[in-house]
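Hi everyone,

Forwarding the result from last night's run.
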Amino acid sequence: MRLLARYLGGQVLLASAFVLLALLVLFAFFDVIQELGALGRNNYGLGQAAVVVMLNVPGHLYEILPVAALIGTLFTLSRLVGNSEYAVMRVSGLSNWRVAGYFSVIGVLLSLLVLVIGEYVAPWSEQAAQRYKLLATHSVVAQQFRSGLWVKDRSAFINVREVMPDNTLRDIEIYGFDADGRLSWIRAAQEAHWRGGQTWDLQQVVETRFDADGIHAIRNAHLDWQSVLTPDILSVLLIAPEQMSARTLWRYVGHLKENGQKATRYELALWSKFVGPFVIPIMMLIAMPFAIQGPRAGGTSSKIFIGILAGLGFHLLSRLFGHLGLLNDWPVVVVSILPLLIFLTIALMGIRWVDRR
C-alpha cells in the first residue's frame, strides 16, 4: 500500500505542478497586458513592468494552487481509470476511502505550503510590487477622500494628505480632543518618518493649544509622535485585505475595534486565512467522484470540465456568502466555514455514491 500511496502522490503532484505552471504563465500574461497601459509614464518601461509581474507571481500562486490541485487530481485519476490502472489497484485491495485518505494527506501538505506563501511571501511581494510601481511612476498612494486619509487614534483624529511608497507621511494634521469631546489641540507637521516602536518622527511641527487663557502656538523642528498608525496599517492602502497576512489583519481588526469602527470585511478576510488550508484537501476530494467513474461516464476532458465547474461553484459560493455576510452582518465564522462544510459534505457523499456502485 505504501508503494501505491507514493505512486498516486507522485502522479498527482506532478500533474498539479504542470497545471500550476500553465496557470501561472497565463496569469503573468494577463498581468503584462494590464501593465502595458502604464508604460511610458515617467521611467516606467518594460524592465520595470517585468519586475512588477514577477513580484505578483507569489500572490497568484497562493490563489490558484487549490485549482491546480483540483485539476491535477482530476487528470491523474481520470488517466488511471482510462488505462485500467485504478481497477488493478482496487482489485489489489485499495479502497476509495483509502485513496481519499491519501489525497487528504497530500492536500494538507500542499496547504502548509500555501499557508507559508500566504502568510510570509505573498503579502510582502504584493506590497513590494505596488511600492516599486509607485516609485517608478513617481506616484502617490491613492487616498480615501479628497482631503486625504483619516484615521481615529483613541481620542485624536489624524489627517494625512499623502502617503508615499516608502511610508513617509506628508502634510499631517492631528486633532486632539479632551474627555468632554472639546477640541484641545491641533498638531500640524510637514512630514513624518517611521522610527519603529509605534513612534513617528514629525518634522517642522506647529502645535496649537486651546487653553483657558487663550490660544498658544509652539514650533518644533522635530517631535516624537506615538500612534497606533503603523506601516502595517498603512499597508491596507496598497493591498487588498484578502492578500494581507493574518498577523497584519489581526492587528488591524484590533485597531478598528478599539476605535469603534466596523471591521467585518477584515474579520472575514482573517477567517478566510484560518480556513484556507482546508480548501485544497476538499478540492481534491471533490475531484474523486468525477474522476473514478468508469469510461462510460465520459472521457478525461469531460471529467476535468465538470470538476472545474465544481471548483468554480465552490469559489462562487464562498464569494456569495462573503457578500451576503457583509450586507447582513452575519457571523464571520459561519460565513467562512459554511461553504467549506457544504462542499465537504458533497464530496464525501459523492465518494460514498461511487463506492457503492
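The radius of gyration is 26 Å.

Cheers,
N.
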